[in-house]
Amino acid sequence: MSGGEEERRGNRLTSTHNNEARVGPSGTRTGTGTGTGTDDILSHVQLLNLKSHKYNSTSCSLLDPIFQPFWNWLTDRLPLWLAPNLLTVFGLGINIVTALILLVYTPDLRQPVPPWACYLNALGLFTYQTLDAIDGKQARRTKSSSPLGELFDHGCDSCSTVFLTLSVAAACQFGFNPGLTLFHCVLGSLLFYCVHWRTYMTGTLSFGLVDVTEAELTMVLVQLVSGLFGTGFWTENVIYSLSWGHILILTSVPFELYSIGKTLGIVVGKYGVGKNGSTVAGTSVISPAIPIFLAFAPMVWIAVKSPQGVYHSHPALFIVTTGLIASKVTDRLIIAHMTKSDMKFLDRALIGPGLMLLNIFLGLGMSEVMLLWGSLLWTIFDTYQFCSRVCQEICNFLNIKLFSIDYIVSSSGGGSSAARVGSLRKKN
């Protein structure tokens, strides 16, 4: 996600709903597609609210206007059969793969990374940022805009945030400063959550002068510097005990604190657009603080108090697990905003951290590394199942497909009728 979203994504709004029963990708029954099935995640009221949802954003990004001509030029060269969500998920995949390549070389975030891996990550990050910028343009160009597109875009962004921050930590060898690393990565996910928390309260997704586009391009620059001068460059002391890595983090903190402060200002002042300053769903503006607290607090406590030092021995694994749990909670916040519904406090992704806490409190002596791996695998499975079912229910209700679109091929004769053609027939 980046600033200038109104120009880049717009409102993805559509059509009719389908009452025919469907089977989800996992083979489980997803109900009738009307929100009345016993296995449905979204209720009929939520689906109706989603269908009437209108995208609203404001932006004063410094760099978005500079890149708009490039994004428009690139969009005009995309084939009309290419579904916008394919661009989104392809960008996410590139981001994850290039980040994992870095982590293969430095799982403890302390080892040097070869220059080619940093350059590859920079290219992957720029590709992700570009595809994220043009998926909405492609949706408007192919007249395939829908609320599902907006939801899918933001959901992929919440996952990407985890790997963006971790890539920087790997390229800068932040593992030599465990506390700083945890702070950097948790703050990245928290900032993304706060953006959508504000949206849940105000109904408008807002971006400032220095926001997502600027942050992502800064990360590209960091990878290029690491490739050119080596990852050890960021551990060199500049003044007293401050390294270039410290300076990189400290210069970003004011912008991050400002963003969090904007969110807390709306909460304290009760400036939500709902009745009596509530959220768009009419719920308390402070309620979203509880789910994200439950996502972060157990993992931070485990990082500090773990008797086996699981965070210090496996920082990358720990941060990915923590970040994906926060990503799942963020997805539920985005859904709550778009469906104008309340947000439950507990989530199944918290089972993993809960078991790790019980292991510590009860002195069971189980391997914390194994429990951490179990937490990660469970979170991935639970998030995939949740997201695929939500997408399937929305597709059924709106009678659309997730990874394919219908497009129009114009005849060369000028006076002849256009042919309606179906593209890929994949449904998810």
TrEMBL record:
GO biological process entries: phosphatidylethanolamine biosynthetic process
Which keywords does UniProt give here? Answer: Lipid biosynthesis, Lipid metabolism, Membrane, Phospholipid biosynthesis, Phospholipid metabolism, Transferase, Transmembrane, Transmembrane helix
* Annotated TM spans: 86-106, 174-196, 217-235, 247-268, 280-304, 316-335, 356-381
Is Lipid metabolism tagged as a keyword?
yes
A GO molecular function held by the record: diacylglycerol cholinephosphotransferase activity
Q: What PANTHER family is this protein classified in?
A: BB IN A BOXCAR, ISOFORM C, ETHANOLAMINEPHOSPHOTRANSFERASE
As for membrane topology, the entry says: Multi-pass membrane protein
Protein name stated in the entry: diacylglycerol cholinephosphotransferase
* Entry-linked InterPro entries: CDP-OH_P_trans, CDP_ALCOHOL_P_TRANSF_CS, CHOPT
UniProt pathway annotation: Phospholipid metabolism; phosphatidylcholine biosynthesis; phosphatidylcholine from phosphocholine: step 2/2
Q: Which domain of life is it from?
A: Eukaryota
* Region annotation Disordered: where it falls in the sequence: 1-36
Protein's cellular compartments: Membrane
Any one Gene Ontology cellular component term annotated for this protein: endoplasmic reticulum membrane
Instruction: Give the reaction(s) catalysed.
Output: 1,2-dioctanoyl-sn-glycerol + CDP-choline = 1,2-dioctanoyl-sn-glycero-3-phosphocholine + CMP + H(+); 1-hexadecanoyl-2-(4Z,7Z,10Z,13Z,16Z,19Z-docosahexaenoyl)-sn-glycerol + CDP-choline = 1-hexadecanoyl-2-(4Z,7Z,10Z,13Z,16Z,19Z-docosahexaenoyl)-sn-glycero-3-phosphocholine + CMP + H(+); 1-hexadecanoyl-2-(9Z-octadecenoyl)-sn-glycerol + CDP-choline = 1-hexadecanoyl-2-(9Z-octadecenoyl)-sn-glycero-3-phosphocholine + CMP + H(+); CDP-choline + a 1,2-diacyl-sn-glycerol = a 1,2-diacyl-sn-glycero-3-phosphocholine + CMP + H(+)
Enzyme Commission no? 2.7.8.2
Pfam assignment, any one: CDP-OH_P_transf
Identify its protein family.
Belongs to the CDP-alcohol phosphatidyltransferase class-I family.
Q: Where is the composition biased (Basic and acidic residues)?
A: 1-10
- Asked if DNA-binding is a keyword of the record, the answer is no
